[in-house]
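Quick illustration, no need to memorize.
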Amino acid sequence: MLGRDENGRPYADFTIAPGGEVVVASNGLADLPIQFELDESGPGAVTGDEIHVGSEGVSPESPLFQIMLRDRHGIAFADVAGNREQDAFVVTGGLGGGIASPLFLGAVRDQLLVAGAGPGGGYGDEIVASGVVKGRCRGRSVSYADADGRGNLDLLTTCEGGPPQMYAQTLRGGFVGVVGPPVVGRAFRWAPLGGGRPTLLASTRRGLESWKLDRGGWDRVATLRSVREVEQIALGDFDNSGALDAVVTGADGLTLLGNRGGRLRPVRSRLGLPGDAAAASFVDYDNDGRLDVSLAPQGIYRWDRRRDRFRRTGALTMRRTGYAIVQWMDYDNDGRRDPLIAASAREFSPSAHVIRKRNVTRAGHWLEIDLTGSSRNREAIGASVRARLGRGRAVTQWVGQNDDSRHSQGHYRLYFGLGGKRVVRRLIVRWPGGGETRLRRVRGDRILRISRAGRRIVPPRAGRSAAR
């Protein structure tokens, strides 16, 4: 039976047989609490341990309990509590726009899941103590960056139909609201294009805009009007110039962007890449020292040194798709990055086709690096590493460039294809907030962990070396 209580709140009165189940659908109102009150006495009375909630069958402490169906749109991982464990900031939606209603304002919150703060040492939600206030933000994506170049993490949450919200880190697990960039966009990504502070790329109807934080205020430093309604931004130094380039996909098709003096410019020929794609990612899949491009649905385009352009390989092709996410990581630690692809007809399709494959390409020598920064930025977001291989050859990677999630963040490992070289002659780490670490004659074919306090070598845990 459906009805409303004396306060006007809706309720459902139901009877359930032993072994039966009740299915609760959000009906567009995820992120609001749903309270259950089951009889504790009389015929059909139950105890908390007789109730099982969710796919894992968790029992509540009593027959009076609440659940909340979360509408999680993005997750950013970083150690913001200072306990050497990665915490997770979860940005949620906005009730389909209903978050601004006086009936719901303040009832919907994001989550800051801190490792070790929950029962039994698990994750605990510390969003109330964090100082982050969701307000009317219909959350879409979340990311961390050292926006002011001082070495501390800043938090950016983007909002459907409104400008992003920005928070500066004040203490461990704590933030304070600061002025965010005054731009309403479709896709956002931090990119260290040069100049010490990262650039925030924002896709708008006007074009691809570049924003920088300067002396407490935001400046729009460039607008690329030939590239509008971008849906995804991938980063990588495809020409090994030592500056970060980009490839973007969206309503105007696929565009390759070269970094010229800290500003992105279209590469007119696209250097052999097709004019359209659902998703893109830079990856040196064969460890030859030059970035290739992985597209959905067209597959891998390998950099051809002889022709100075990308050439289609026919690998990883798939059926035509309207929406996709392409990620590459070395999940078996054998030195070769492996693909993970999700494809669907539309962004909000009820189902998606997920592909995970192991890279068995005959590849060159390699080096993978995990950086550990200061206690206020342990993931070293904003750092770069340049590997000098000799005879003028060098490969540069930036922390975060290999994460091509559309709405989330958490892939911080750096990958260097060394080709036929077994040793890196010189390795230069530039840390966020200033400072460098220099290493000489670094042996390849291993995973190296570098911190400001020293360095530690972590051997591969699975698989065999991918080197020739």
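Residues 1-69 form one domain.
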